[in-house]
Amino acid sequence: MTTLSVTKNTALAAIIASVFASAPAMATEGGKCRTDIAYNTVMPFDASPVIFEVLRNIFEAKEIRVEREGVAYTTEFNENRLRIGVGADNKVSYFRCG
Predict the structure, then answer these.
(1) For 51, what's the count of Cα atoms within 13 Å in the CB-facing half-sphere?
(2) What's the CA angle centered on 80, arms 8 and 26, to 5 degrees?
(3) Alpha helices of the chain — where are they, by DSSP H?
(4) Using alpha carbons only, how large is the chain's radius of gyration in Å?
(5) Are 69 and 40 in contact (CB under 8 A)?
(6) How far, in Å, CA of 75 to CA of 21, rounded?
(7) Rounded to an integer, what distance in angstroms lies between the CA atom of residue 15 and that of residue 97?
(8) Which long-range contacts (CB under 8 A, 24 or more apart) does 74-83 make?
(9) Dist. CA 5–CA 9, nearest whole Å
(10) Mean pLDDT across the stretch 57-82?
(11) I want to staple 31 with a disulfide (CB 3.0 to 4.6 A). Which of 12, 46, 60, 62 is the partner?
(12) Model confidence, pTM
């Protein structure tokens, strides 16, 4: 990953964090992933540990699971987990609680 791409991802993460931080805070129960957040992006993020951690903090989840395209995962629901989908192009395609 180039320095420009890392800088771009970090800047995008900071913008996202500031948008969500300005929204009224709702009480969450001990690390449960927040389901009251909706975010849509025109330009998908490059998959990186920085983006994963920013999303985890925004959703206030205890843990994350990065789901790669073409790999099978269990279907159990975990209210403390944020699931982040990454496509073959190494771009984040979705993020949701579960």
Answers:
(1) 23
(2) 75
(3) 3-22, 49-59
(4) 14
(5) no
(6) 30
(7) 21
(8) 79/32, 79/33, 80/31, 80/32, 80/33, 81/33, 82/33, 82/55, 82/56
(9) 6
(10) 93
(11) 62
(12) 0.68
Q: Which two tokens stand for residue 7?
A: 């800088």
Chain segment 10-68, per-residue pLDDT in tens: 766 666 655 555 444 444 566 789 888 776 667 888 999 999 999 999 899 999 999 99
Q: Domain limits of the chain? A: 27-95
pLDDT at 14 (0 to 100): 60
Q: How many CB atoms lie within 10 A of CB 58?
A: 20
Q: Do residues 92 and 58 make contact, with C-beta atoms less than 8 angstroms apart?
A: no
> What local confidence, expressed as pLDDT, does residue 36 receive?
83
What phi and psi, each to the nearest 5 degrees, are found at residue 64? -125, 160
Residue 82 reports pLDDT greater than 90: yes
Q: Which tops the pLDDT comparison, 77 or 8?
A: 77
Is it true that domain 27-95 has CATH number 3.40.190.10? no
